[in-house]
């Protein structure tokens, strides 16, 4: 739900139902990225966001209020762009994670195969030694 001005769409508050700090903090982070990059001189353009923050009205309520103020762009569009950037970042993190998991599984399978091969070689060596001892003719008194 959007709570904004009818005369100026460059600032608005949005209520996100059934959400908590997890999503709200990530959205706030994405909204403030342009401002941080400008302060660090990585971004030669003026940021679109002048303020982004969130609050949770009450701990027992499952909603978050996100406040966005921009330099002129519609706050709704800026929030939408930040959410899309967040989804792209999440996709990237997911793909890196999935790749790391598959590489880990391959490595674990390789290590298990090596361990099995080593165990088999030890068993074969032990069997060979037993057969050698059995074939020796040891006389008892």
From TrEMBL:
InterPro entries: RBP11-like, RBP11-like_dimer, RNAP_AC19. This is DNA-directed RNA polymerase RBP11-like dimerisation domain-containing protein. It comes from the Eukaryota. Keywords: Coiled coil, DNA-directed RNA polymerase, Transcription. Residues 104-139 form a coiled coil. Belongs to the archaeal Rpo11/eukaryotic RPB11/RPC19 RNA polymerase subunit family. GO terms for molecular function: DNA-directed RNA polymerase activity; protein dimerization activity.
